[in-house]
Design a protein that fits this description.
60s Ribosomal Protein L30, Chain: A, 5-stranded antiparallel beta sheet, 1 helix, mainly beta, single chain, about 130 residues, two-stranded antiparallel sheet
């Protein structure tokens, strides 16, 4: 287990993928404050994402991401987030990208197991092989 943080102005997903490129599999948990966020929700019938960009500032209430090897053999993140606003309303979904407004504090829990993904044609997503 390792605790780390990202700084103001850093992109969450891009920076995490760079930092974790040598981690074959694991879990990342985090929280913080964001300037903006791009969230997606998958439509199972259409097999496509609906996406929104939301400007902040906002609290990152919850961040969870699995780390697994992509079908191309690279380390990839599958991240979800819930953000909250000054009126205490929330939005959540698949986290495409976000910019740190103040801090992003996280813990990584590495797995001994090498986890890989495969593309499931019926669902239309890259899923973890079990």
């Amino acid at each position: 287990m390792k605790i780390f943080s990202l700084k103001k102005g850093e992109l969450v997903i891009k920076t995490l993928e760079d930092k974790l490129k040598d981690v074959p599999s694991g879990l990342v948990l985090g929280l913080g404050a964001l300037s903006w966020v791009r969230l997606k929700v998958y439509d199972l019938k259409k097999k496509e994402y609906n996406e929104i960009k939301v400007d902040g500032p906002m609290e990152l209430v919850s961040f969870t991401a699995t780390i697994a090897q992509t079908t191309e053999g690279k380390t990839g993140l599958h991240a979800h987030a819930v953000v909250s606003f000054n009126d205490f309303s929330t939005k959540g979904g698949h986290l495409e990208e976000a910019e740190v407004a103040a801090t992003f504090e996280a813990v990584i829990i590495k797995s001994e197991e090498k986890v890989q993904r495969y593309f499931d044609k019926d669902i239309g997503l890259n899923l973890i092989k079990s």
